[in-house]
Design a protein that fits this description.
Layout (H helix, E strand, L loop, with lengths): L1 E9 L4 E4 L5 E11 L2 E10 L1 H9 L5 E8 L10
Antiparallel strand pairs: 1-3, 1-5, 2-3, 3-4
Length: 79
């Protein structure tokens, strides 16, 4: 894993979730410009303050996030 700073816009409203042991967190997907292309980066916010603030944002909101990046490769969707 590597340290990362990303900025972009939310592609959908964030989703508040709860773990099996009752802890809350919030997830979202950020569209990050990469030249003529774009990367879609999934983010998760843990802790009451961070998760609550992310949950208040809406689709299209500008966002910057810093944290640990774990790269996975998804399958492109047919368009």
């Amino acid at each position: 894993m590597i340290g990362a700073l990303i900025q972009g816009e939310l592609v959908a409203d964030p989703v508040a979730r709860t773990t099996s042991n009752g802890k809350t967190f919030t997830t979202a997907t950020v569209r990050v410009a990469a030249g003529a292309e774009a990367l879609f980066v999934g983010v998760a916010a843990f802790g009451e303050t961070a998760a609550g603030r992310l949950a208040q944002l809406k689709k299209g909101s500008a966002i910057a996030a810093a944290g640990t990046l774990e790269q996975t490769v998804g399958t492109p969707m047919a368009g």
